Amino acid sequence: MTHKICMTEDIPEREARAFDNDKGETIFVTQRDGMFYAYKNLCPHLQVELEFLENQFLDQDQEFIQCSTHGALFNVETGECISGPCLGESLQKVELRIHSDGGIYLS
Ligand code: FES
């Protein structure tokens, strides 16, 4: 089943937005170098949501995904934790499909 969550222009480069999937889970989508990446909104450290402020999933330099609870940093492209208490663990990746109409779909 496919589920359209937004259009590509809704996610500017180096920004992120949260959405609910059809299982009622929160995911977030971010754009980096023209590619879109999505992960479940769950920190592998304590299984809590990552953001403190709405749609604030990136660090101050907008370089890494950051957990607001203990500051873990995650690689945008792979979801791997590269600093913090869950070093070496990863965010759960969510597969996306981009349609030619510019829609972003969960596959
Ligand atoms: S809960 Fe995310 S780093 Fe601790």
Order of helices and strands: EEEEEEEEEE
Compute the gyration radius: what is it?
13 Å
Domain count: 1
Strand order within the widest beta sheet: 2-3-4-8
Distance between the termini: 7 Å
Mean pLDDT: 96
Low-confidence stretches: none
Largest sheet: 4 strands, antiparallel
CATH topology label:
Rieske Iron-sulfur Protein
Count of runs of 4 or more consecutive helical residues = 0
**Which small molecules are bound?**
FE2/S2 (inorganic) cluster
Principal-axes geometry comes out as globular
Strand content: 35-45%
Q: What percentage of residues falls in helices of 4 or more residues? A: under 10%
CATH architectural name = 3-layer Sandwich
Walkthrough of the structure:
The chain has about 110 residues and is mostly beta strands. It has a single domain, classed as Rieske Iron-sulfur Protein (3-layer Sandwich), CATH 2.102.10. It has strands at about 5, 15-20, 25-30, 35-40, 65, 75, 80-85, 95, 95-100, 105. The strands form three sheets. The chain has a four-stranded antiparallel sheet with strand order 2-3-4-8, with no helix packed on it. A three-stranded antiparallel sheet has the order 1-10-9, with no helix packed on it. The protein has a three-stranded antiparallel sheet with strand order 5-6-7, with no helix packed on it. A hairpin with a 2-residue loop joins strand 3 (about 25-30) and strand 4 (about 35-40). The termini are close together. The structure holds FE2/S2 (inorganic) cluster.
